Amino acid sequence: MTDASGAQAAGRTGDLKIRIASALVLAPLVLGAVWLGGWFFVGMLAIAAVLMSREIAGLLFGEASAGRSALLAVTALAALALAGAGLTTAALAAGAAGLAFALAARSWTGQPLWPALFAYPYLILPLVALVWLRSDPGLGLAAILWLLATVWAIDIFAYFAGRFIGGPKLAPKISPKKTWAGLIGGMAGAAAVAIVTWNWLGSGSLAALIGIAIMLTVVEQAGDFAESALKRRSGVKDSGHLIPGHGGILDRVDGLVAVALAAALMAIFNNAANPAAGVLIWS
Questions:
Q1: At what angle do helices 114-134 and 140-164 cross, to 10 degrees?
Q2: H helix intervals, 135-205
Q3: Which end of the chain is more exposed for a tag (fewer CB within 10 A), N or C?
Q4: What's phi and psi for 171, nearest 5 deg?
Q5: CB 199 within 8 A of CB 218
Q6: Which helix (DSSP H) or strand (DSSP E) does residue 90 occupy?
Q7: pLDDT tens track for 23-44
Q8: How many CB atoms lie within 10 A of CB 103?
């Protein structure tokens, strides 16, 4: 092995070690809040919302300052408080009110409107969706654990498949490291979680659950690409430097943002067909 290839391998190993160490610190905190539910879960999301607001402001508004992100953060916190109190419709209304105020302010000062049109739904809708899903007394805990396990499995399997198999790139102009092998590996990881979940619950269709898991892999990757496009537009490698080995919090939850919203939409459709089902994502 040449010095260059040895250094490259050492870099990959060091990066992986940092990623694992960060995950070992953060995962128990996240899972603890998910398990406790209620305001513990809302509180964790509130902390995330403030941090995400700052990073979104940096990517979309040109400056990650407290002033730039204040209205976005306050709107997200208000929406979370209402969602935590069981007032989901009011939470969405609060998000819409914050967006309307931001649009009016940007219009008054002659700034482009599209950053606000993207930022508010991007942050607030997934947060409200997660609180709504977790609040279901029957399936809320299982739904959130399944979503987290699916997203984590997609990321882990895609990471190793991309690193060790490589091959053609998915969209090199947006995310040069993403490969078709990584996407297929992510699908395999999601399918594995679906099989474990089906055995755990002992109900529903395994084929349907695997199909949903594969679909969510595409959604998760789309969320990743959306954030990558924002970073490339802003000329930065990471959305922040909060999490060693991962970058900012958006770099860690970009896939979950998309998956949470997709899962909530599926639960809404299932609930419309079967009102007694609760937040049943799979059927």
A1: 120
A2: 140-164, 180-201
A3: N
A4: -150, 80
A5: no
A6: helix 88-108
A7: 777 889 999 999 999 999 999 9
A8: 15
Q: Does residue 239 or residue 42 have the better pLDDT?
A: 42
HSE at residue 87, side-chain half, CA atoms within 13 A, is: 11
Residues near 64 by beta carbon (within 8 Å), at least 6 away in sequence: 54, 55, 57, 58, 240
Q: What is the mean pLDDT of the chain?
A: 83
Distances from the Cα of 117 to the Cα of 61, 64, 141, 262, angstroms: 12, 18, 31, 19
CB atoms near residue 134 (< 10 Å) = 24
Asked whether 242 and 249 are in contact (CB, 8 A), the reply is: yes
Single-letter amino acid code for the residue at 229: A
Torsion of CA 181, 184, 185, 189, to 10 degrees: 170
Asked whether the whole model's pTM tops 0.90, one would answer no
Is 168 exposed, middle or buried (CB count within 10 Å of its CB: 0-12, 13-18, 19+)? exposed
> Position 275: which residue type?
P
Candidates 51, 87, 48, 80; CA nearest to 66 is 51
Q: Would you state the pLDDT for residue 166?
A: 74
Phi, psi of 274 (to 5 degrees): -140, 85
- The angle at the Cα of 238, spanning 132 to 42, to the nearest 5 degrees, equals 20
What count of other Cβ atoms lies within 10 Å of the Cβ of residue 60?
A: 21
Amino acid at 5: S
Distance of CA 160 to the CA centre of its chain: 20
Please say whether the beta carbons of 214 and 157 come within 8 A. Answer: no
Q: pLDDT tens across 241-277, in order?
A: 766 656 778 888 888 999 999 999 988 887 765 655 5
As beta bridge partners, residue 243 has: 247
